[in-house]
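Lab notebook: predicted structure, single chain.

Context: the supervisor wants predicted structures on file for every construct in the current expression panel, including those that have not yet been purified. This is the next one on the list. No modifications to the sequence; it matches the entry in the shared construct table.
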Amino acid sequence: MQVRRRGTDLCRLPPGRWRAYFAAWALDRQVAAIRARRAQGRRLDALGSAVAAYELLPCDLDVVLFKATENSGRDYLERDYGWHRVTTGSIEPVVIGGAHFSFQPTSTKFAPRRGIMEPPHVHLLASAIAERLRGATEPPSPPANSTSLPGRAP
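Prediction complete. Output recorded below exactly as produced.
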């Protein structure tokens, strides 16, 4: 049965066709949802493949690592959270009060935790960032005769 999906005047449908029209409409919606999920799955697969194939090369940069005092059960993580694999420069840990995540528990048995992105901890974080930025130096300028981009061969 061929049913016109858009612009169908429901009042003009014969009484026996209503059910068929809505069944076809519902089926179209389900098929569209399945196709959208499959397309999203293909995009996620492609993203996963790209991430797996990406080779991160360490760079010679100094890193300031802001860490929460409440590690939320992250004892299994490395002390520098793996940043030693990304940089050959120095890693300066700065400890900020609060929790890394600030999910409010649904039960009243537990006290809510304040995250580092919430007051009062966010003000300490902002001050620490501002202090590090004030102490930062300008990156070295490229030589005058250089025509290539940084990190690329001429």
